[in-house]
Amino acid sequence: MRGFMVFCRKELTESYRSYRLVILLVVMALMGIMSPFTAMILPDILSGSDLGGGLILELPEPTSFDSWTQFFSNVSQMGMLAMILVFAGLMASELSKGTLIPVLTKGIPRGTVILAKFTVATILWSLGYAVSWIICWGYTIYYWGAQDFTHPWITFCAPWLVGELFLALMILGGTLVSNWGGSLGVVAVVVITGNLVNLLPEVRPYNPITLAAGTLGLLDGSHSVEDFTPAIAICVGAIVLCLILSIVVFKRKQL
Amino acid sequence: MLDSWEAARTYLPILIPAAIIQLGLMVASLIHLATHPRVKLMPRWVWLIIIIVINTIGPILYFIVGRTDEEDQ
């Protein structure tokens, strides 16, 4: 346990010194700011544009729902991309530089290293996600007034959970291949297959990738919580599996 | 005239923080670039252009892939 705390502290200091923390917070804060803004100006930009043949596009007044739509699409695209770039070197850079060897010879178990890295990455990602959400929520209340959410936790934690899955996948990829490409490759393969598989409607309820933007349906009432429980369960299972696999692989790995 | 004043009042609470963050990022990365003679991937002058021309993403890219920790001698 002591080794875990020490390693966590080392990771936190490192993410602060390598600007990871600041970059993630800044990007996520910008996502939070831009989401309500895009929702507001989108009708102004698009309305009045001539679609040809005298057809004029008329868009309704934006609502708080549009603001959250933008939030989900921003976070699940730009936000995740920033998070992936920031954390891609999490395992890989230390494995390729060999900086973990002194730590391991001091007696910190290999499993602890993986879990500590995942814990610190989780803390940073949660912090970034919370900052983004709070800013977007504040602006949405400021412009459209307070609103009630029926299932706030499931709706807004689903994209965060997908982020966690990407973190676990990057740790696994980094442990397997020991370079940035491994981490990015594993995530890319999962995202591409996830989106391809989504073409089949019967797979969609079980696909964790749909969680990134799909829980928006809970806000307008077109979906119920039960629609997402299988995907959430599979997502959590996949995270645990990735971590266990990473620990197993890392224990056998020659440094 | 009234119209633009209205628009400004509506959008300024969003635009001012966004502008502060973007400018802050640019200034921070320019200071970092100025005090660190060695950069990765591309020559320094290319990074300078990227930071100034590509809004927000340029400075972030610099911090993620271009930055080195070697201080000015």
SSE layout and pairing:
The complex is a heterodimer of chains A (255) and B (73).
Chain A: H1 2-17, H2 20-46, H3 64-87, H4 89-97, H5 101-105, H6 110-144, H7 152-177, H8 180-197, H9 211-214, H10 229-252
Helix pairs in contact in A: 1-6, 2-3, 2-6, 3-6, 3-7, 4-7, 6-7, 6-10, 7-8, 7-10
Chain B: H1 2-35, H2 44-53, H3 57-66
Question: Describe it for me?
Answer:
The complex is a heterodimer of chains A (255) and B (73). Chain A has helices spanning 2-17, 20-46, 64-87, 89-97, 101-105, 110-144, 152-177, 180-197, 211-214, 229-252. Chain A is an all-alpha fold. Chain A has one domain (2-252). The longest helix of chain A is centred in the middle third of the chain and has 35 residues, at 110-144. Chain A is elongated and about 70 Å long. Chain B is an all-alpha fold and 73 residues long. Chain B contains three helices and no strands. The A-B interface holds A 19, 23, 26-27, 29-30, 33-34, 36-37, 40-41, 82, 85-86, 139, 142 and B 10-11, 13-15, 17-18, 21-22, 25, 56, 60, 63-64, 67.
| Secondary-structure element string of chain B | HHH
Number of strands of chain A: 0
Helix content of chain B: over 70%
Question: What portion of residues of chain A belong to β-strands?
Answer: under 5%
Q: Tell me the structural class of chain A.
A: mainly alpha
| Helix-strand string of chain A | HHHHHHHHHH
**Major protein interface:** A-B, 17 and 15 residues
Distance N to C terminus of chain B? 55 Å
Oligomer description? heterodimer
